[in-house]
Amino acid sequence: MKKGIHPKLYKKAKVTDLSTGETFELASTKEEITVDVTNLSHPFYTGQHRIVDTENLVKKFEEKRTVAEKKSRRTKSEKRSRRTNKTSEVQGRERLTLKDMLSQIK
């Protein structure tokens, strides 16, 4: 191993978690490290669910959802009656074959 080309190793580097304020030590090439999220504060490791919404995306979604819920919806019976009306109209008309349609054009 060449001398003088490797960075200095700090065996007790101080790591500070900005979200919780907790600190711990580990080996690093920097003496002090500040991080936003660590295993002490990340929802995957802690089991706590947090929503980080910097652009109000959740609020916008909730507003869209309430508007959509206010719109009138057709019930199943209304849909069924419209469908039966359409099929009865089609059944009332004569069904022409392609040959019959072409003969009407001439």
Descriptive overview:
The protein is of the alpha+beta class and 106 residues long. The chain has a domain at 7-49: Irregular (Rhinovirus 14, subunit 4), CATH 4.10.80. It is built from four helices and three strands. Strands 2-1-3 form a three-stranded mixed β-sheet, with no helix packed on it. Strand 1 (10-17) and strand 2 (23-28) form a beta hairpin. 0% of the residues are buried. The mean pLDDT is 83. GO terms for molecular function: structural constituent of ribosome. Residues 65-106 are annotated as: Disordered. One of its GO terms (biological process) is translation. InterPro entries: Ribosomal_bL28/bL31-like_sf, Ribosomal_bL31, Ribosomal_bL31_sf.
Return the structural class: alpha+beta
CATH class of the domain at 7-49: Few Secondary Structures
**Second rung of CATH, namely the architecture of the domain at 7-49:** Irregular
Strand content: 15-25%
Count of alpha and pi helical runs: 4
Summed over residues and divided by their number, the pLDDT gives a mean of 83
* DSSP E strands, number: 3
**Can you write the helix and strand succession as a string?**
EEEHHHH
Q: Could you list the spans in which at least 5 consecutive residues all have pLDDT below 50?
A: none
Proportion in helices = 40-55%
As laid out across the biggest beta sheet, the strand order is 2-1-3
Shape type: elongated
Radius of gyration using CA atoms only: 34 Å
The CATH topology of the domain at 7-49: Rhinovirus 14, subunit 4
Distance between the termini: 95 Å
Task: Report on the biggest sheet.
Answer: 3 strands, mixed
Pfam families: Ribosomal_L31
Keywords: Ribonucleoprotein, Ribosomal protein
Region (Disordered): 65-106
Protein name: 50S ribosomal protein L31
